[in-house]
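User: Reviewer 2 asked us to show a designed sequence for the structure in our supplementary figure. I'm pasting the structure tokens here. Could you produce the per-position amino acids so we can include them in the response letter?
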């Protein structure tokens, strides 16, 4: 028997994710959930609906979260961490409010949240905290006793998140035709967000303009590129590029877009590109459509060999990283000295989002942060 690990004061982990459609009839209601009150142009929505229909109306994201749940439960059991793991989504079943109600009925009082976004930003952090506040408000209205909720820190620079992606890039390079391999460049890809959202994505006094979102991605990109150089003995030039832009065209979002980038690299004589989706935790629709379908077709037109490297998904090293993050946070919560595990130059991210961190356009209550009305 392994030693028993102590997650106290926490009595449950909640995997909190985006959710996705599981059949053609789900696509439109799913997109309505995603875009409620967000001002995304109708044309863009129709287009994005087509991305899902191309895959039978099924996003892979729910199955990937089921696989991650299995991996977490297996890892916890094997290491003597007695902590039940639940799963709830922002935009599709199992909905967060239903999961949280089930957790309260199961007697869970101190809940730790793992969001499937590794980086700072409104979309990846505060929006999930708003979802938690909404769910708590719903349970309060039902007369249930509310649990205490904390959210795990951003884990972009945890080795269990970075190392599987290093393997992925090394593998993708090896899959390129030999004659273009050595000259290949790496395009680290992440979700574009409005420039204004990037600028305010982390504590402004700490990160300034450009924000935590871009700085965190640059740190991960550099870590992976360095590790790849060590593994392959080749220095592959790299860039951070963006994908999945939406919103009105006159509002500036982070650039360059991956498709424009491929065109520009090709024109500059680069013989091949590996697209490494470091902004995402699993190979969901943004990866399957925007990179594997759209960007890969663009590369085909150009005659530019490309490969897309794997996300962490349910890699056992990622599950182990989550265990480590849970124990780190639990120890900290018990007042113990803990040394947070983080690679790169930025250090471990804050445990508690400070007041006003990654703000929304219109302020709304957000749980699990210094400005939570439920603290
Ligand atoms: C930073 C970020 C992440 C990464 C962090 C995280 O993972 O949270 C992410 C993930 C995801 N985004 C996803 C899907 C969508 N995102 C949309 C819209 C938007 N995303 C934004 C940002 C992000 N998004 C933003 C600023 C918008 C504009 C509207 C708004 O301000 O909210 C739209 C609407 C249509 C469109 O415009 O594309 C859809 C359908 C899926 C599910 C994929 C699947 O089904 O497999 C996932 C994992
Ligand atoms: Fe998105």
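Assistant: Here is a per-position design you can include in the supplement:
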């Amino acid at each position: 028997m392994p030693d028993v690990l102590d997650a106290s004061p926490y009595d449950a982990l909640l995997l909190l994710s985006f959710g996705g459609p599981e059949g053609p009839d789900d696509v439109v209601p799913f997109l309505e959930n995603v875009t409620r009150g967000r001002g995304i142009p109708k044309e863009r929505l129709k287009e994005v609906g087509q991305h899902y229909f191309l895959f039978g109306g099924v996003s892979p994201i729910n199955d990937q979260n089921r696989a991650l749940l299995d991996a977490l439960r297996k890892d916890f059991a094997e290491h003597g961490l007695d902590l039940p793991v639940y799963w709830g989504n922002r935009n599709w079943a199992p909905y967060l409010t239903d999961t949280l109600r089930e957790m309260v009925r199961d007697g869970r009082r101190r809940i730790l949240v793992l969001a499937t976004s590794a980086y700072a930003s409104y979309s990846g952090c505060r929006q999930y905290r708003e979802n938690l506040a909404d769910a708590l408000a719903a349970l309060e209205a039902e007369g249930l006793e509310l649990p205490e909720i904390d959210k795990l820190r951003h884990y972009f620079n945890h080795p269990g998140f970075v190392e599987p992606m290093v393997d992925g890039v090394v593998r993708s390079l090896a899959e390129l035709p030999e004659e273009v391999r050595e000259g290949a460049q790496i395009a680290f890809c992440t979700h574009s967000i409005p420039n204004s959202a990037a600028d305010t994505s982390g504590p402004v006094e700490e990160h300034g303009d450009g924000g935590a979102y871009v700085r965190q991605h640059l740190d991960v990109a550099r870590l992976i590129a360095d590790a790849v150089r060590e593994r392959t003995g080749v220095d592959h030039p790299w860039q951070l590029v963006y994908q999945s832009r939406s919103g009105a065209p006159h509002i500036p979002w982070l650039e360059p877009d991956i498709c424009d980038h491929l065109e520009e690299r090709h024109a500059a004589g680069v013989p091949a590109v590996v697209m490494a989706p470091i902004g995402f935790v699993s190979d969901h629709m943004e990866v399957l459509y925007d990179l594997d379908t759209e960007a890969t077709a663009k590369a085909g037109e150009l005659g530019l060999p490309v490969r897309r490297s794997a996300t962490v998904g349910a890699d056992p090293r990622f599950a182990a990283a989550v265990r480590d993050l849970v124990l780190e946070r639990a120890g900290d919560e018990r007042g113990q000295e803990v040394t947070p595990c983080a690679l790169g130059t930025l250090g471990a991210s804050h445990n508690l989002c400070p007041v006003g961190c990654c703000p929304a356009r219109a302020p709304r209550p957000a749980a699990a942060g210094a400005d939570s009305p439920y603290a």
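For the response letter, you might also mention the following. The two ends are 37 Å apart (CA to CA). The first strand starts at residue 12 and ends at 17.
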